[in-house]
Every structure is written in C-alpha cells, then in structure tokens.
Amino acid sequence: MADKVLMKGNEAIAEAAIQAGCRHYFGYPITPQTEIAAYMAKRMPKIGGTFLQAESEIAAINMVYGTSSAGYRVMTSSSSPGISLKGEGISYIAGADLPAFIVNVQRGGPGLGGIQPSQSDYFQTTRGGGHGDYHVIALAPASVQEMADLTFRGFDLADEYRMPVMILADGTMGQMMEPVTLGSYEPKQFDKSWAVTGTKKARKHNIVNSLYLDPEELEKTNFDRFEKYKQIEEKEVLYESYRMEDADICIAAFGIAARVSKNAIAAARAEGIKVGMIRPITLWPFPKKVFEESAKTCKAYISVELSMGQMIEDVELAIRCARPVHLCNRTGGMIPSPDQVLAKIKEVAGGLN
Amino acid sequence: MSMFNGPYRRVTLFAGHYGSGKTSIAVNFALALRRAGFKTAIADLDIVNPYFRTKDSRMMLEQNGITLISSEYANSNVDLPALPAQTYRLVEQRDFHAVFDVGGDDRGALALGRYTPFILEENDFDMIFVTNFYRPLTRTPRGALEVMREIEAAGGIPFTALANNSNLAHLTTCADIEATQPLMEQLSDMTGLPVRFTAADAKIAQGLLLESVFPIQLEKRYYDIQEEI
User: Fold this and answer.
1) Do A15 and B136 touch (CB under 8 A)?
2) Domains along chain B?
3) The pTM is what?
4) Cβ atoms A210, A40 nearer than 8 A
5) Tens of pLDDT along A164-206?
6) Is B77 in Cβ contact with A116 (below 8 Å)?
7) Of A114, A177, A266, which is closest to B77 when you measure between CB atoms?
C-alpha cells in the first residue's frame, strides 16, 4: 500500500501535532475546525495523552499556558470568534515567553459571522491579536500537506523562540481532503531549563510570569523581546515565488486564495499576460524583501484575499507604495473564483498598456 | 473484471467514517438507480459536515431527474443540525427508490435513528459500510470494524454489505486500490458481510482487475488546481 494517507486539513494538523510530540490538547468545539478536537479525542487516550474539552476558549488557552509552563508541547485550536476569546491568554503566553501552538481555521466575520471560509483575521494575527507589544509567528498553509509540515515547523519555532506560533488557515484548508505523507519529522531537542517542574531543592526556582512591578524592567523585557523578533524577521521568512521570472503583474495571495490564483495565472498566461505570484507562507514575519525586490520589475500588484483587504497593506508597505496595488476579494465566507481573479488580471493588464 | 450491477433494494443507505467518500458514492449510486429505470430520490442526512454536501451536486441531480432532499441550511452559515420533514416520505410512502447519505461516524448516524423503525419494518434495504483504507483512522480492518460497530449502535440498523472506496483523491492508481483488496477481504471475513462493490474514479475504473467495480464521476471542486502546489 502507498505510504500516503488521505486526510482532511484539520486531521493533518492533529496527526502532525501528535507526531511532533504534543500530548496535551485543550480546546472547545467550533466549526470549521472541530475535526482537530474530534481527532484528538479519539487518539490522545490511546497514546497516553490528554484531550480536554474545556468549559470555554478562555479556559482552554489558560490550560495551554499552564502546560507550557511545565515544559510540555501543548496546543489549542479554534476558529475566528474563539480565537478572539483566546486573545487575552495568547498575550499572557507571549508576555511570559512561553512556547505554544495555536490553530485558527478562519470563518467569516465579524461577530459570530458564519461558518464558511475566510481570511479576515489577518490583521488580528499579524498585529498580535491581544493587548501589548508582541507578535506571534503566523504560518499560512495552502495544501493539506502544508497543514502537516507547518505544524511540525510550528512546534519547533515555538520552542526555539519561546513564543506562540499560530497556523492561520481557513475553513477550506481545514475541510478539504488531499493525500499526505507523514512520518519524516525528526523531533529536535530544546533547552527547557526554564520550565516550572519543581526544584527538588536542587536549584533556584523558576518563575513563569507576565507581570512586572517595575516599569523599567518591563520596558527592558519588551526591548529584548523585539531583538528576538528582529532575528526572526531575518531568519524565518517563508514564501513561494511562482512564475515570477518575467512577471509584469504580481499576485499576492496566501492559503486558499493562492490556489484559486494559480488557476487564474495559468489561464492568464495562456492569453499571453505575464503574471506571477508571491505566496507568503509566513504572514509574520512578512516576506518584505522579496516583495520589495519584485517592485523593480513588476508594474502592478493584485492582492487576492478572502477579506475586505488586509494583507494588501503589508504589500503596499513592503514595496513602499512604489507600484499600484489592486484588491481582488470576496468576504463573509465567499471565495474568489479563478474567473474573478482572471478578470482582475485582465483589467490591470489593460491599464498597463 | 466486472461492473457492479445491483442488487438494488428499495432503500440503500451509505454510512461510514467521515471523509470515506459516502457523499460521492451516494450521488453516483442515485445516478445508477436512475439509469436502471427507477424513480429515484437521494436524502442528505448529514448533520455534522459543514462543507462539501450532497447539495453541491443539486443541479446535476435535478438534470438527471433525481429528487434531492437536503436541509435548506446545508452550505449556508446556519450551523443547525436540522433535517427536512420530506425525508419521512421516503420511508412512509415508499414511492421512490431511495438513497440515504448518512453523516460520518456514530455522531452522523445518530440522525438515522428516527427513520430506523420504518426501514426495518419494510425490510427492503441495503445498509452499506463505505470505507477507505487510506484514511488514517481506518487504515486496518480492525479500525474500520470499530467505526462500523459504533455506527450500528448509533443508527440502529445492522450493516448488510461493504463497499471499498479506498483512494488517495486525484493521485489514486489502480494498484493503490488493488492493494487494499486483502484488507477488504479480511473485513468481510470478520463481519460475514459481502463486498457489494469497489468504487473507483471512472477515469481509471476500466483498468481495475477486480470484481463488481463501481465507477464514480467526481465533482470538480473550486480548490482543485491543475498544477501541483
């Protein structure tokens, strides 16, 4: 039999998390990510792990805080409104310099919104999401295989930089099924000497905390943390550059929007329009340099998004508004079609001549 | 090889692990019933799955003269596990050959329970367990059997047959399907149930060296891409 399995995106995240050594899952059900919780509920008891359906999202994220303080790999998952509820806890985790793996399978908003796919939590994710000066590393998969691969990477990044890492997927990524290969991940060793595991009277006690009584000390902590963020922006940027070698028009898109755009690019190329795509895989850190570089030759940009236009601001910033950036979008749970993107490409191409 | 050619009971139910391909099979089975000359209806009993529902095939079903009974909330933002009242017609008036697309796992099969007494009383049904041995939780006959027993307990109808729907989506080869045949035979031995058919994408079905092959046409999805991502 083939070594591949056929998985939903949500299941791929759950299985990859288990293979990454995560034995503690705390969550609360919400469509369209519930399969993550359902998978964990089935698997965790069989491998000596913990699956706990908390009484609320707020409780779940605080259980993540506690488990991470003890040095264990731990995760939670939710969808847009649930992530808002977790926002306070994520800020505490960032403030306490704890690793944590968080999944947001986005649905339409604002408010209770709807259960259909969306990318409208981009601002929330890339600007932090909760209160205070902090970032989460935001990973945006565009296939079920990437749902798994970025889960492995996410756990490693969280441990390496001691900070929250978030998968920013959308409902389609969570629900769609594709063949996946798992099992090639090699767990790395990380120093967890900071963990609150009991001193056994053999060492000074560790403290995990985000409260600072002295404002100068808090300021210094923030400065130090942003030094770390600077390193991450240097070292951890991921993106896919697609047919950019001769592109006049550059599409910026991530996740499901990038898949739709690929079909539109194929159709536009067949009509002789030179169009390519930069697909950010890390949304924070944003692939600023590759966009900036591309503006030397590209004449126009199209940001394809399932939102009212959020990533478009990062594209404009990255290219310092040197070229026009157009928006091609649907919102509220709707998805741009390849035809809609193609029409936009043609419209923009028409303006170039 | 040979193609599936019935039997066609008055009611055919498809249940299994979620993501095992029940909806694709149910839709294609309704088409087969119609081609065999029966007045056909298909009911979507899925109260679990938020996306990718029988309703995605509505136009195609209607064009083929098949009655679709589906929640008016399917594919909407209403996350409400409601079933339409017309579903009762299929088990009470019995004037259609009916296909039931049951929701995944025991949770999905729970919704079947309310129709169970009618179906058992009429006793002209085929309750088919759909399985894909490439799904992570049903990689083995034992894993599949666990799901089967949970569904039977929830839905109250015993399975009467098995259907092999092992596939890796667009990457599926004939060899991938044939490799699961021993597992299917084991499951058949463990349960004492016959294998009703082996489903395969119509594009490759002709090449299968198996008995009772059921070719299926797959709906193209908006996220399918021509080139590998």
Assistant:
1) yes
2) 11-216 (3.40.50.300)
3) 0.92
4) no
5) 999 999 999 999 999 999 988 888 899 999 999 999 999 999 9
6) yes
7) A114
